[in-house]
User: Fold this.
Amino acid sequence: MSDAASKAGRWVDLANPTRFINFAGIVLPWLVGITLLVLAAGLWMSFQAPDDYQQGSTVKIMFIHVPFAWLSMMCYTVMSISAIGTLVWRHPLADVSAKAAAPIGAAFTALALITGSLWGKPMWGTWWVWDARLTSVFVLFLMYLGIIALTRAMDDPAKSSKATAILTLVGFINIPIIKFSVDWWNTLHQPASVIRMGGPTIHPSLLWPLLVMAVGFTLLFFTLHIMAMRNEIWRRRVVAMRRIAARSAERRGVSS
Amino acid sequence: MLALFLRDTRLGLRAGGGVLIGILFFLAVIAVVPFGVGPDLKLLARIGPAMLWIGALLATLLGLDRLFQADRDDGSLDLLIMASDRHMLALTVLVKCLAHWSTCVLPLVIASPLLGLFMNMEPAAIGATTLTLFVGTPAITLIGAVGAAVAVALPRGGLLVSVIILPLTIPVLIFGVSAAYGAVEDPAPFVAPFLILVAITLFFAVIGPLAAAAALKSSAD
Assistant:
């Protein structure tokens, strides 16, 4: 009982931007270290992994393509949860989190598209096909860009946060479409092969590097996200301080 | 609500020829296509339904920023938001969308058979395209209401509305065009994509006004 209360208390504590910055200062060095270790291990395992009997060495593109694609969807989910946080609980850090996550998500989505087309050229014989999975991921990329454009268009964060949150939630419709597009339609993109009923269909020698890379890139995402949130808080403080300085300078000018 | 519908319809028909501009833009897009791809009649007939859909989509997006902007400028939007305890705001938005659709988009749907003749389309293809446009364009307006409401506080939100709405309208375009092709080409089905198109419209008839009402409320205070 008291444990649950203190847990909730800790979450509320994080809502205070100063406490969040302290928390980020403690967590970030560890997170950076673990991320680097896991990514290095993942890279080493990827280079050690045997070539696929059909795809040859291009299968190794999958070790970065799949984590990027997963993260592009996870980042949007994080943004949607933040959007709910903004609209329902009015959590003061939720819109900071959503704003910070959007460019990272856009970058991961772009990387997923680029690595996918690099893999598609030797395997499918084309850089790009308009099948359901690729198209829906491309739509996701466009939505990230739209959300970024909207947040940057308004200079008052209090106003832009709600508008962005609503747009993010409406756009969340796309995420299940991306996830199930390979099952609903006949696509060139292969169906899910790692997380499925009856266990993964990938050989363990290829599965383990993939999982380690996925964990590594997820950690990388959280590192970047916390850094970007800290930057955003600092940026808002600088703006607020400048305003206060300008106002006090004005007052001094009047009194003298 | 009926009074609001009539008022918006009258304003839409009167205000500076917004309807005419939409139709002219639609006409211009369709007229530019033969210059772009060459006057090959067979090719034009094949890409006709897709071109009509793209033209209608662009022309609809063009008019979307007027959905709330004029009402915000003269202050009646604030009155509508303040009256939200008597009339649910989402319902008000839905009525405004319907009025906007019937003044700005319905003329495009009516004009599309004529433009279909330019594209050398068969009568069946023209009929199917007009029908899918009639069913699918309300979804575009309803999605657009979200964008227009989100960007209503911006001084120059018109282009931004199109940019943030375009990705969400892609499913409408996909199923609209595939239904239109399904009516002409034999192996492709017509009923399935058409029903999905209807489902998208009904789905956004719920989601769109609710989200737009929430955005309007947050922009007002």
Summary: Chain B has a mean pLDDT of 82. The two ends of chain B are 24 Å apart (CA to CA).
